[in-house]
Every structure is written in C-alpha cells, then in structure tokens.
Inverse folding.
C-alpha cells in the first residue's frame, strides 16, 4: 500500500458544523484502519477533548494516535502511552499574565479535565470548555494558580487587531523561548518553541518508521499548513482558507459535505487492492461478518487465486456431524468475492450473481476444509470463478462455480 497513515485535523475537517462525526465519515475511517492504515487526529484540542472522538472512530481498537495541543503531545489511543510531550516553561507564565492584564485580555490553560482561566464569563472560553467537555475554574491570580507546566496557554480577545499586534510583538520578543500564532480571530496560542503539527508528526513518523511520502494529511486551517506540506499527499478542505488550499495537492469537499470521506475514498481506498492488505488484517476486519462467524480465514490471495480455510464444527456442520452444504457455498463465495474485488478497477464494484455447487463427498466434524479459488473468465462485466473445496487429506468435497457481476460505481 502506498499510504500507511492518515492525519486529520478535527474542527472544520473531521467534524461538520454541528461538531459531529457523520455516519459516512465514521464508516470510512474505520474501514481504512481495518485495511492497516494508521489514523492520527492532529488537533489544537487538549488530549482530554480529542479522546472521545478517537474512541468513536475505534482508534482505541486499531492502534490510532492523538497529536494534541497542536503538537504538544502524542498519545497512543489504544494503550494510553504518552509518546511525546513538550511543555511551557512555567517561569514564563507571570510574564504572559502581566501582558494580558495590561491589554485587558483573558488567558486560560488546560490540565486534565479542567480549564483554568482569568475570566470564567468569557464566551469563547465557555465555548472551549463545552467543546471539550471540560470544567471551568476561575482564578484571581493566574500565575500563582498555575503550579504545573502547561502544554500551551491561550490569549483571548475580540479585538483582532490587538491580537495581531501582540502576536507580532511576541514573535520578536519571545523568539527561541516561546512560539505564538493565532488559531482563531479571537485566540492567540502560546506554545513551546518549535511546536507545531508538522514537527510533532515527524517525531511520530520516526517512531513508527513511516516515511512522509506514505502519509495523507487533511486540514482546513493555517495551523494545518505545515503538516499538509510535510505529507506525501496534502489535502485541503473545501471550507479552508485560500492560503491553505494553495499549499495542498488536492482540494476536497467541505466538512458539511463529508469532505474527508470523499478524499479518502477517492485518493486512498480506490488505490488499495485487497491483495495488498495483509491476510491477518483481512481476517480481523471480517471477524464480525458471516465469514468470521463461520470461522473462515483467508490463507492466500492474489489476482488470479484465493485460498481460505473453514473448520467443520458446530457452526458449519449438519446436526449429524458432516459439513453443511450451505456453509461450503458460503466459503466458496467468500473466496471468489475477494478474488473479484482484487480484479476490479477503482471505479467498479462487484456483486455476486450466481452460485452452483456439486457436493462430491463429505467432511466430518473436527476436520478443517480448504477452498482454492481460480478465475476461469475475466470479462468486463462478469468474472467466473471455480472453487474447489478439499479436506485436510486433500479429498475433494465440493466443486463450486461462482459468477460475479462487475458494475460501475454510481
């Protein structure tokens, strides 16, 4: 597979304007993980606020990662392991507080499930707490209350020009000690030096031994530009700013139009052949489907030959202990289905059309049968497969003919 990792911004990218993951988005992202592609959520959100979204996408079951605080932390969602972290020097907090008090700005930071702030009534801070399901705690003396090293601090004001002036001032004044940038018109973020999504993503890629050319990155904001440029294939959302789109290889639909799913389906999934997916991942992806319930396991897959095994047990036998003919046909269809999927072009789908089987002998409970499927006709509109089913001693049990119809995607 060309791509081994997909990195997604969250707000304005993964989530629609109602701040939810749509059914299509969830299905697409779970599917690519089952294909063996790692999923990373790269967000300005704190880890606490991104974790529920990661679990909604089954990233805790598929070894996904959260890159939170715009690069301040990397968390393995499955194990909870902290892989990387960089925090602010706490000695800088009093300086930040003095400056915000002087200009009548609000300030806040995060710890666990709490947002500490100088202004509990600020609408933007209230919204941030609600967005991340965090509690608000107002403190009179911010620098005295922050006894820990935060991953970042946020300066808040509705005076956009004043924030721009402060950003420019701090970029010169604090160069090498802190980095600052505006993530929203009303937010100025203060982070440790050299922390952004691309730099922290590079740390993760090195740990996982994945090259940047094997990464797809998708985002909508200025904070996403660095990772879009780092990735082998950078994608901007349709709702992104023009400056972000100019840096991308491809512009997809908006977050209201499932732009992430659209991009992944066309750029990633359509480029993957089933035979390129490791067999253990194919089997894991199907464990809750019919083949999983019958104990069917793929053992070999290429474009002209597919093999699989199935146990003869209480799931697949008849009441008196021999292999059920219906289970045999299900095994044959499973083999031929994967074979046709491997042969389909990116704009095609496969639909089973006809199956006919000749049952020649029996297999008994306790045995494991093996199906060998070979293609005997590969046409533009149909595939014909022959699937022979053998016992463990190579006795032929059944010979099955499968016809699959090949259709263009609508």
């Amino acid at each position: 597979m060309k791509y081994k990792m997909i990195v997604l911004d969250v707000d304005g990218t993964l989530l629609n304007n109602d701040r939810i993951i749509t059914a299509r988005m969830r299905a697409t992202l779970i599917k690519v993980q089952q294909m063996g592609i790692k999923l990373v959520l790269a967000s300005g959100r704190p880890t606490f606020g991104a974790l529920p979204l990661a679990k909604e996408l089954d990233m805790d079951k598929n070894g996904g990662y959260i890159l939170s605080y715009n690069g301040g932390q990397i968390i393995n969602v499955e194990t909870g392991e902290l892989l990387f972290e960089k925090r602010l020097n706490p000695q800088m907090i009093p300086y930040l507080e003095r400056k915000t008090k002087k200009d009548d700005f609000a300030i806040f930071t995060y710890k666990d499930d709490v947002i500490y702030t100088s202004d509990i009534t600020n609408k933007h801070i209230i919204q941030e707490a609600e967005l991340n399901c965090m509690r608000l705690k107002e403190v009179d003396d911010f620098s005295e209350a922050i006894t820990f090293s935060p991953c970042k601090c946020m300066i808040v004001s509705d005076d956009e020009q004043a924030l721009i002036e402060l950003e420019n001032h701090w970029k010169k004044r604090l160069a090498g000690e802190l980095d600052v940038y505006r993530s929203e018109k009303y937010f100025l973020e203060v982070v440790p030096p050299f922390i952004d999504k691309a730099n922290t993503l590079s740390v993760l890629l090195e740990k996982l031994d994945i090259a940047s050319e094997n990464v797809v990155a998708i985002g909508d904001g200025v904070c996403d530009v660095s990772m879009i440029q780092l990735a082998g294939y950078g994608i901007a959302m349709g709702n992104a700013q023009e400056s972000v789109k100019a840096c991308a290889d491809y512009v997809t639909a908006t977050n209201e139009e499932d732009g992430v799913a659209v991009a992944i389906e066309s750029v990633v999934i359509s480029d993957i052949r089933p035979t390129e997916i490791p067999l253990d991942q194919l089997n894991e992806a199907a464990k809750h489907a019919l083949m999983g319930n019958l104990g069917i396991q793929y053992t070999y897959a290429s474009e002209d030959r597919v093999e699989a095994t199935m146990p003869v047990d209480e799931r697949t036998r008849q009441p008196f202990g021999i292999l059920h003919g219906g289970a045999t046909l299900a095994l044959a269809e499973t083999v031929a289905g994967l074979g046709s999927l491997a042969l389909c072009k990116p704009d095609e789908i496969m639909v089973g059309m006809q199956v006919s089987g000749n049952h020649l002998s029996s297999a008994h409970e306790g045995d494991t049968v093996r199906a060998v499927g070979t293609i005997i006709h590969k046409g533009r509109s149909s595939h014909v497969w022959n699937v022979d089913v053998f016992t463990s001693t190579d006795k032929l049990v059944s010979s099955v003919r499968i016809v699959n119809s090949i259709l263009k995607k609508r």
Q: What stands out?
A: The radius of gyration is 27 Å.
